[in-house]
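Progress against Task 2.4 (sequence-to-structure conversion) is shown through the following example record, which the project officer requested during the mid-term review.
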Amino acid sequence: MEDIDGTISAALKGEKISTARLISLVERGDKQAPYILEKIYPHTGKAYYIGITGAPGAGKSTMVDKLVKGFCKNNYSVGIIAVDPSSPFSGGALLGDRIRVNIKRKEYDYFFRSMSAGKIMGGLSRTTREAARILDASGRQIIIIETVGVGQSELDIAKAADTVVVMMTPDSGDTIQIMKAGLIEIADIFVVNKCDRRGAESIAHGLSAMLDRIEKTLEWRAPIFMTAASLNQGIDAFYAGLWDHYNYLQTENKLENRRRGQLEEELKRRVEIEFAQLLWREIDNDNHLDEILQNVWNNRIDPQNAARKIVETWLYKNSRE
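Structure tokens generated for the chain above:
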């Protein structure tokens, strides 16, 4: 482990090449990944996590570019994870950092990583949180996670960020879609981007009306910012709004409570994953599965009850050992 220990040590000091290597090892499920995560975890928890989501074409990448410049100008070290659609051929991310980031000043301290969403329907990569923690441990004070913006990504990002930003545009459709997707409950900040286009005010009014109806149930009413990221309009107000929410989270242990809830959800999910892997390792070596599959094929048992029978058989077998 001497080589990996040196890499971990260098990454903890902020060295970018070592940080990138650790993320790559974790992302591809290398055998050293558990050791890496064990060693970096005690150094995490200091960064401010911002999740930015919204439909494709909402201008998320341009907005991230503007935010990174703002944070860097104020002497913050920034880590960016952009979760991209995956290639159907290689499984890798379709977009790259040359496309996503347009920051040319070398003195700015930022680290960009594009990750493939892989087969995860929620829009977040299986290892997004681990990559974010590596950036956190490496000294990045601000972590921005930009989702692919499809499926349940908005709900997933709420489980990984301190502040959730939902971006919309005038051509993104009726605001009722937001309510259907549950975004009105999980968004900490709304941004109506491309506000120079017709219909932007209508989107903002629709959002405000929805928030009016549920305001009594909200501890924090999500502000609505009108921006045109490509034109540098409204960026400063949005930037200040992020810090307003961060300061709000510092009161009455709100940030601690949010993070504890997120960790509880993550722990449950990972226990399910570990249990499923353990179960399938034993099932794959048991011809009993072929018999049950044949019964399902012949309509003798439905898949749900077949699955229950498999688990019950496994539990009975292990209880007797």
